[in-house]
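User: Teach me something about this protein's shape.
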Amino acid sequence: MKIIITGTYGIGTLTRLLARNDNEITIINDTENERMEKIAGEYDILAIHASPTDRQAMKEAGAGSADLFIAVTLDQNQNIVACGIAKNLGAKKTVAKVVDYKYADPKMQLAFEQMGVDSTIYPEALAAKDIISGLKMSWVRQRWDVHDGALVLLGIKIRETCKIMDKPLKDISGPEDPYHVVAIKRGTETLIPGGNDQLKLYDLAYFMTTKNFIPTIRELVGKEGYADVKNVMVMGGGSTAVRAIREMPSYMDVKLFEKNEQRCEDLLDKLDRSNLMIIHGDGRDVTLLKEENIGNTQAFVALTENDETNILACIMAKRLGVRKTVAMVENIDYLTMAESLDIGTIINKKAITGSHIYQMLLEANVLNVRFLLTVNADIAEFIPQEGSRITRKPVKELNLPQGVNIGGLVRNGVGMLVSGNTQIEAGDEVMMFCHNGDMKKMEKLFM
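Assistant: First, the predicted structure itself:
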């Protein structure tokens, strides 16, 4: 497929995602950028110095024959105009990054389509959703819901209290058990486990289950002692923090630390929440944190624009007794380090954005895609068509390639786990887990 990207927001993550399937990629940027040139050389893609709102330059760059045109400059108006030009020239699909929340409202979609924008992406809202998901279950690193929770994927750090550690999976997770372990991150290695594999101390294990069995998983992994989150401290008053605080459940009391005094004043106008306290101060100030009773806080969320600050603040919060920490880490090179330091839930807006864009490349009926950076894997919800290959044989006869797992499916609103004897039907919502970027190949099973 031919893909054109304009702007450099998240370009490293985007190219890493999109270059996996031998796509033809061109980057257009209106200023010379050393990072763009470096990435272009690393992934063998074409870099063009031109304005994305210059129709002639866009035409010469081949925007008219693009299968996907992605506008991710820092200027949302430029992104919208660039998509309109690309669509007018003949681009098949266009997506624009926006910074104004109302532009991401589904009610605006028809108006944007008339302007040539097929999809808008607001990274802060996507990140806020993941932050809230992490806070609602303090003992879980990551959570993914299919069909409003009919099927659930839980990423859980294995600790000494785990009751199913050091036992073959075939003995603890058979066809009749209410969960499957679909992937294991051990150090820097990702395993798609078989029956003889075992959960080890400090593994990050991904469990597929149904909503009603979440308490069972919690007991098995020994996480009953993790208190539910009622008091939250947030460091950094940027747009991601604003979106997250607006969407936090009403039962959560929030203290927001912001160093900039004027920003504190602005936040008073932006955030209308009775159980919110805005504090002018540094969220890394130990004395201040103790004064604000960090010992009675169940979660600490670091959302400044500085990755190192977020990581260090979460380490400090852990040392002060906070069990649940969430850090926004945008530099992809820091992710492994953050994971090794046991930070907790890690939010990377660029990866979340890239996942939503990657979904537009898939031709099968797919509801959602997420790239899990910590395990170098994709998960997606596919809906098979009538007569598609995946519906013709039981799962055990599909000869799925190594690194691919079908975790479960939702049929008529009911979630169920998948075994070798499962016969997938047209219309099912099927959860696929693919290690090392096989998603584009796997979609053919559903068409």
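Now, about its shape. The first helix runs from residue 11 to 18. The radius of gyration is 22 Å. If you'd like, I can walk through any region in more detail.
User: That's plenty for now, thanks!
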